[in-house]
Amino acid sequence: MQLKYKLESEIDGEKNTIIETKYVDYIESTDGKFINIEFVDDKLMKCVLKASLDEIRVSYSNQNLNMIKNTYIRNQFKLSEKEVFELEVYLINVHIDSQIITFTYDFLQNKNIIVRNTASFIIKESK
């Protein structure tokens, strides 16, 4: 089995693909309510996803994102080793099945939406 990661952003009704990896091998396991996915993309960036129907934890490109459905969560993002900034993240929905894990979330500042993102982990049979 292989997967690819796709991140789409929507600003003012316009959608853009921000990241789309090639299909790569991955490791899948479970831990309580979470499905765990680990892979290294075609640019050698490590990704770790812990997904459940009401909570998402993702680590990608040296950034961490933690979300709980229908809850505002403050997350820190690294600009450099010493510089960070904070944004609120609001998880709108999560879909999990055997072929895709997808979730939609907003980045907000002072409860105002800056951008809406949809992340998809698309799974296919290996040849």
Summarize the structure.
It comes from Metamycoplasma phocicerebrale. With about 130 residues, the chain is mainly beta.
Shape: globular
Q: Note the beta-strand portion.
A: over 45%
Radius of gyration: 15 Å
Largest beta-sheet details: 7 strands, antiparallel
Top-tier CATH class: Mainly Beta
Whole-number count of domains? 1
Helix content: under 10%
Let me know the average pLDDT: 94
Tell me the total number of β-strands.
12
Distance linking N and C termini: 8 Å
How would you describe this structure to a colleague?
This is DUF1934 family protein. It comes from Metamycoplasma phocicerebrale. The protein is an all-beta fold and 127 residues long. It has one domain: Calycin beta-barrel core domain (Lipocalin, Beta Barrel), CATH 2.40.128.20. The protein contains no helices and twelve strands. Strands 1, 2, 3, 9, 10, 11 and 12 form a seven-stranded antiparallel sheet that branches. A five-stranded antiparallel sheet has the order 4-5-6-7-8, with no helix packed on it. β10 and β11 form a beta hairpin.
